[in-house]
Amino acid sequence: MKQVNTVQYILQRWHRSSSHPHVGNVIHQLKTCRTASQGYHLYQCSNENCGRYHYRYHSCRNRHCPQCGSFQKQQWIEDRTGELLPTHYFHVVFTLPHSLNSIVAGNRKQLLKLLFDASSRTLLRFAKDSRYLGATPGILSVLHTWGQQLSFHPHVHCIVSSGGLVETGINTQWKNSIRNSRNFLFPVKALSAVFRAKFLQGLKQLAKRKEIIVTDEMGFHSLLNKLWQWPWMVYAKKPFGGPQQVIAYLGRYTHKTAITNHRIKQVDEQLQTVSFLYRDYADSNTEKLMTLPVQEFIRRFEQHILPKGFTRIRSYGYLCNRGRADRMKRIIKTMNIPSHPPKIKTPWQLRLLLQYGIQNLRCIHCGCVSLQIVKVCFSFMPVNDS
Among 324, 358, 377, where does a domain finish? Predict the structure, then answer.
């Protein structure tokens, strides 16, 4: 029996076309995930009393797919947690005002990058101030574009170390913040003001160089003037209790999609509506049910498909990609702690067994671990945007 309370079924049943070719390609991959269109591995049971065939359809592996990416996520988390240090970590969220939504939606690649740049530069500026840290911290930033109701809500979650690297010539030192015992690493109101300034200055420069599309010049400049006057939302959560809390955070936030299948509670074929769970943060985080027409649900889902090749997880400070391995070695030596274990890529067959208790080569008919590959068929679809 076909499962209907899924994003895939809703797209297969009601989605017809997309105005942007890249969005259409992503939606097509989600529609055909784990179907014959994606290709398959054909296995045959080698048990002489069975001999049955098994088709294993390929996943689309698209980062927007609610049913893909579990193993890749786990591998990424293991790689990142291997870089954790014995210091405190803080969680800071930078959010763009809703009045910028239409401009950001029309210029996603440029302005979502600007969101990353403005938030990271704000954190690095405060970290270099000797009143707070006086060093270069490690920052891991994760972009989300959605709210609980699938509305367009661009914001960046940042994990920030409360200790940092001080490099003077050939010398390397590690410095811990004097504010480790506080509920915040940097003053939030000051963070908000600097973040606002960096984003708006960058936005103004992009408009001046004609690198973004602005349909109403007068309205755009009027909005900029108003945005300078409004407070911007920067939310600093309490510090993580330890590395295990950081790991749990990474598991929840880094590879999330706009909506997961378990939140979809009902798809009404007759009324053509979708009902899904959401949390109302304005009402004590209460879980509620929202019902939308299917076309509105699809429209809201589509607006969270990122530009092709856009990187939604970025690292800064001592965690920035260039020279990261060498910096980590110097930090470990300076802190006089054991070296991190080497990164190991776990085969997907082993992950399947460890996470779900499923033996990949077990025949579902006779129960023997006896499947052998007979044929592999690949699809001829465009390369997916990961």
Answer: 324
